[in-house]
From TrEMBL:
Alphabetized SUPFAM superfamilies for the sequence: Thioredoxin-like (SSF52833)
A Gene Ontology biological process term: cytochrome complex assembly
Name of one Pfam family that matches: AhpC-TSA
Localization (cell): Cell envelope
Species name: Parabacteroides goldsteinii DSM 19448 = WAL 12034
Protein's name according to its UniProt entry: Thioredoxin domain-containing protein
Annotated GO CC locations: cell envelope
Segments forming domain Thioredoxin: 371-511
Amino acid sequence: MEVYRVELTDTATILYAEMYNRPNYWVRLSSGAYLEGITSGKKYKLLKSSDFELDKEVYMPESGNSPATLFFEPVDENEEAISFIEGSEKGDFHIEGIHLKKQPAQPGTFECVLEGEVIDRPESSRLTLIRAGKDMRTTPFISIPVRDGKFSYTLTADENETYELVFWEEHLNGAWRPTYFISEKGTLHFTLYPMEHRPHSILQTESALNKEEIRMQEEMEKLYPVNQLEKDRDALDQEERYYSKEMYDLKKRISAAKTDEERRTLYPEYDRLNKAGKEFSEEGIALNKKYKEYFEGIRQWKLDYMQKEPTLNGLCILKQMLDRAIMMARYSPGEEDVSVYQDIFENKYKEKFSSHPYITDMERIIASLNVKVGGSYIDFSAPDLEGNMVKLSDQIKGKVALIDLWASWCGPCRRLSSSMIPIYEAFKDKGFTVVGIARENNNTDAMKKAIEQDKYPWLNLVELNDKGNIWEMYGAGNSGGCTYLVDKDGKILAIHPSAEEVTKILTEMLP
């Protein structure tokens, strides 16, 4: 649910909202919903709804949107902000802090006005806005409605940082192409196209930082025309000439499969073709080689740009490239030299932009490279479910310990955690312990439910909205989680070990 307008009258407080979900999925709104004054705590009950039927599963149309006009009791005139609360049950929907009066600008902030049109995307009802590199599963994001093919939003910011716009339905479908920009004072005008369009977005502005971004993109496209290469790839694919004949046949069989189980039986064939070098046609192989050459050229162009006089544009590029390089260093060792970016950071940007939040972010992710087998774990404090701050080292000192980073929404994480329960029971009296840290969004309701369902017998702490930057600190990126087995001295013995591997190590260390 998204509230886009509030009207105050003598007889009612009227919320104009949109309910949204995937097309043909349902949304239900309880008649027990109410408003609550932020400072007064006073409750204002829901009187009626127009446009949207209460206490009923309402299925979304193809647009994914359904309007709702909600009438509540009139709020007191001294209320400055209210919260919408669907009900008193766990998991009921809340919208915190709906301001009833225009908020004065805070010192040091500026307004970045985003506006634009959406072309040939009738299914697109909203955009999501979030800081670049953040995960919408754990970080609050801004939802921007698209109405009649147009959108607008005023972003209030206090730093020049890279943000990304993503179509909401692309995110739901698990594949998206972000549109990047730098927050700065001024107006940015976007023209957004379907994902397959080349380019998929166009930005126009007179604001200095983004104007420089546009210039850079145009120069790189002239030198390394990736958009044209993508058009060539799309044309080959349409004629079934990009992949090999065997791969196209396999794709058709996967598409025709009637059950998930049937599809899963076909995936090993995909791996076989990939390992045998039979995934692409000869034309596809040649095009991919050109891709690689272009991307290496772009990478070198950006390196040269960053090493000239350090600028805010260069800082934003460095942050994105360092994030990617460290991820590659973890999952594809040897493919990219992280030290190149570390040198640029230390020698060009660290001192000049010392007060910018990106400096602290980059220091933290560089330090995460030391979280490796043979290295030491990083200590931190996080709250337990009662809100008490707990220091990790106090819980594991002098013990062999499994530090379990997990999330209620991460199925593989929970399966791995559950597999450790019998190991914990077998070795807990021999000097072994487990400490869980759950990465959650907004509240701990889902975490509590997961613990109750999975019956974890050990202490669990919570990382809410990435406030402690624990995942970044441990180099776990935007994953649901990871596990780290450490010895009594805090040295890391294994990263993300299986239950069998943990059992083997503990049997040798704690006979």
